[in-house]
Backbone:
């Protein structure tokens, strides 16, 4: 029985530890911890992925949108949650690039205490772009929550 308990304890620790799999970079005296982006949903023209970063103790949310055909994205994005609530955040930084021949947009949002608590305590149910284009979260709904909890341990 003691061996089973020890094994379960180790397995629980390993699972919890493995969820905090972020990269740490140091650039010009700045510490950046970054999780890889994970897709949450898509429609016929776009895929949406989310990731969390921590820059010198400040948490940020990055939304990456991969397009078949690029469309303009408003800086304001609505996030809806499993508890039936939602928040609208305004991107602090926006960038565009290409990955695998597809155009992408990156929007980076600073998370204040209220928005961070909302993401940390709920699964994401959808992301609404440009006020009308709702992308339902179909996978990795708790990815942002799990990542934020890693930074706050």
Residues:
């Amino acid at each position: 029985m003691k061996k089973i308990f020890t094994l379960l304890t180790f397995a629980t620790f390993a699972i919890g530890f493995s969820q905090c799999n972020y990269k740490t970079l140091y650039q010009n005296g700045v510490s950046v911890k970054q999780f890889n982006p994970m897709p949450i949903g898509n429609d016929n023209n776009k895929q949406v992925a989310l990731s969390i970063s921590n820059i010198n103790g400040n948490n940020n949310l990055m939304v990456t949108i991969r397009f078949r055909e690029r469309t303009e994205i408003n800086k304001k994005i609505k996030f809806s949650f499993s508890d039936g609530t939602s928040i609208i955040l305004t991107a602090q930084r926006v960038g565009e690039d290409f990955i695998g021949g597809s155009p992408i947009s990156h929007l980076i949002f600073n998370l204040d205490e209220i928005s961070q608590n909302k993401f940390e305590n709920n699964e994401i149910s959808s992301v609404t772009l440009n006020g009308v284009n709702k992308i339902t979260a179909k996978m990795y709904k708790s990815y942002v929550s799990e990542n934020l909890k890693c930074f706050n341990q």
